[in-house]
Amino acid sequence: MSPWRRRRAQARMWLSPGMGVKRWLLLFVVCTLIGAVGFLHFTWTGPLHFVATRWILGLNALANPDVMPMYVTGISVMVLSLLGALFAIVMLNRSVLHATGTAPDTAVDVIYSKRTLSRGPRVVAVGGGTGLSNLLSGLKEHSSNLTAIVTVADDGGSSGRLRAALDMIAPGDLTDCYAALSDSPVLARLLLHRFGRGEGLEGHTFGNLLLATLSEEQGGLQGAMQDIHDVLRVRGQVFPATTTPATLVARLSDGREVRGESELARQVGASRIEDVRLEPPDLPALPAVVEAVRSAELIVLGPGSLFTSIIPALLVPEIARAVRESAAPVAYVASLMTEPGESTGLSLKDHVDAISTHLGRAPTWVLMNSTPVPPTVQARYAAEGAQVLTLQGAGRELRGRVRSVPLLQAGDTARHDPRALAQALLGLIARVRTLG
């Protein structure tokens, strides 16, 4: 965004509802005008009458009544004076903000987040991977009352290496969500930076190493959650589904069991996943997570991998119980494509049934993309064994839950558009508020 457009956007934000600015700006203008009238009365009727007369007569002499009436001259002077006063206030605020270490360009974002977004809807999003972080990046423009509950069973890549070395929960999906919700573009970029060289550093992201450091220092991430939110300037909250390291175990249709998320897609083969579980089974959840679910206006599942992102976060007993008992509707954001190995051959009904079986509650709504996936994109995904997820074979009961909305992001990949997805979810919340 160009600097000029950025300034125009910030100017509109200053005047948006709930910022607490317009009332004081109006008071300033009114008081300035009253003060001007009072000053004119003082000078005209008091000891400065001679000076005021000379000034007004001199001002009138500069104006040609045939071209510009004298009252227009007075209005012009008044407007210029007000603009000068406003400019002085702006420069004073900039000086104060600089002195306190706050960048003037970010002040409006901070106030907008604290005042306007703090009154946004209370949304809990459950899942992991790029799908969840994508969703959060769209929702954070409308509310700061966001809570992400992130699966932590990943055992591959950077997360797997840190888990094995430090016996900690997988930090990768947490890092993605912190970056998505961070109010600082610089911090968001740094969190996702992946080291391409360096013995012991190669392959790790800065965010994963930061979480590993805090986990090591605090004896686990549970004691460091507030510090993380403060340091990263997160708009909302990001919590792991559990702070205890866990292993994902899948039971396949051929009777085999596969241990470890990273092994799942490779070992499924021609079989199908029947169900998944976490070991150990009695995993604790943070009290803040349970409280967020209980107070939510909407609980969102996904988008993300069915058996490795969404369902694992729902296998923590306290979270599953809180979701089942919550009065808030549950919206499942259906994947755009099936995933090779993990959900090959599964229909939308199979996805919904798997969630309902593991959670013990069926989704209230299923949010589905209605924009056709371009043939070239379909062909590329088909070469990898993935197909478009459609309503084919869905019964009347499931079709009654489906809400089809244009959600496809333009480009050469099948990915949800963050803004369109956020608008669709806000529409569901508006419907709940209307009916409630």
Describe this entry's structure for a reader.
- This protein has 436 residues and is of the alpha/beta class.
- The chain folds into 2 domains: 105 residues, no CATH class; 316 residues, 3-Layer(aba) Sandwich (Rossmann fold).
- 53% of the residues lie in helices and 11% in strands.
- The chain is built from 19 helices and 10 strands.
Helices, strands, pairings?
Layout: H1 3-14, H2 22-45, H3 49-62, H4 70-99, H5 104-116, E1 123-127, H6 129-139, E2 146-150, H7 157-166, H8 172-181, H9 185-191, H10 206-218, H11 225-231, E3 237-240, E4 247-252, E5 257-259, H12 261-267, E6 273-279, H13 287-294, E7 298-301, H14 306-314, H15 317-325, E8 330-333, H16 348-359, E9 365-369, H17 375-383, H18 396-401, E10 402-405, H19 418-435
Parallel strand pairs: 1-2, 1-7, 2-3, 7-8, 8-9, 9-10
Antiparallel strand pairs: 4-5, 4-6
Family: Belongs to the gluconeogenesis factor family.
Organism: Deinococcus hopiensis KR-140
Transmembrane segments: 69-92
As laid out across the biggest beta sheet, the strand order is 3-2-1-7-8-9-10
Helix content: 40-55%
Uncertain spans: none
**Total strands:** 10
Number of domains: 2
Shape, principal axes of CA atoms: elongated
Task: Let me know the CATH homologous superfamily of the largest domain.
Answer: CofD-like domains
Rg over CA atoms, rounded to whole Å, is 29 Å
Q: What's the helix-strand series? A: HHHHHEHEHHHHHEEEHEHEHHEHEHHEH
Chain-averaged pLDDT:
84
| CATH topology tier name of the largest domain | Rossmann fold
Beta-strand content: 5-15%
CATH architecture of the largest domain: 3-Layer(aba) Sandwich
Number of helices: 19
Terminal CA distance: 40 Å
Largest sheet: 7 strands, parallel
